[in-house]
Amino acid sequence: MSYGAQIKFGIAHQSAVGSGGAVIAPGSYHHIPLISEDVGLEKDEVISANLIGRFEQGAAYDGVNKISGTIEFEPTPKMLGMVLTSMMGAAASVTSGSLRTLSFLPRSADYSSTMIQEPVSVYKQFTDSNSAESYFDCQMGMLEMTFAQGQLLKAKATVAGGSRVTTGIGSLALPLDTADLSLGMLWDATSITFGGTAVGQYSEVTVSLNENIEPLYTLNGTMSPYKFTRTSFREVTINGTMYFVDRTALNDFVAGTQRQLLINAVARKTQIQSGYYASLLIDVPQMKITAMKPGVSGPGEVSASFTARGVLDPSSNYSVKFTMVNTFGSAY
Known about the structure:
Number of domains: 1
Structural class: mainly beta
Order of helices and strands: EEEEEHEEEEEEEHEEEEEEHEEEE
Largest sheet: 15 strands, antiparallel
Number of helices: 3
Shape: globular
């Protein structure tokens, strides 16, 4: 019998594309503490359409296969740096003492002719049932972060594509940074600024970055994709709920006004350097509200849900930026 509490889950950057780049060294993996995950092999089925004089369907064959799934977790500073690097590539880094300030921007070009993102290896082991799986050439296709009243910051990362190691994988002793585990980001240390003004009426907000990555299959003699491609534009979306204390956001929606959204989350439980805490800043330089319709459902406080998107800002030349402060001294 397997317990979720016993799972070991890790992500590692590859030095090359293909099975030769699959990571097997335990020390190269970043242990990802998580809430849930369903990353694994997915296979299509091809069923013959021939009529055979019976009511049963025809012969069945294995179709195309891929690695897919979603990881849900409560981000901590060092671990989140790995996820952001997998999603957006290497960050611009500034070091001061033991502090590192890492600035992440979405890619301006694909990683290679066949890969959109930098390839990563994924390892998962159900420790108490002696079962492990390893996947290579995986890519992070979508990242979602949710800030909600009364909760720790939560995130979801979607694995888009990859291949399974078919030769088997043994038990890996993944390194676990126990100090990082206590640096979750609570709602009471999260602040929001909209259009240059601090606002306190948001009860929940979710920021999502979607690269719309999908495998492209051809007659290449294998069940694996020929390459990975973008099926649409990059999407930066913001969804949330706020108490309806004034018309500022509603007026912006009506007029089509775009303003900067800043979300700053701090891990205040422990200082990582004297006078400093680990933190995350999300900058959407031009947020355009696309749906907002305040209504009532009883005699209590009126809240309004909204949907928005991040628009490319011509002055900063990006639609979203993530800035992480931590003490991870090595390259991700």
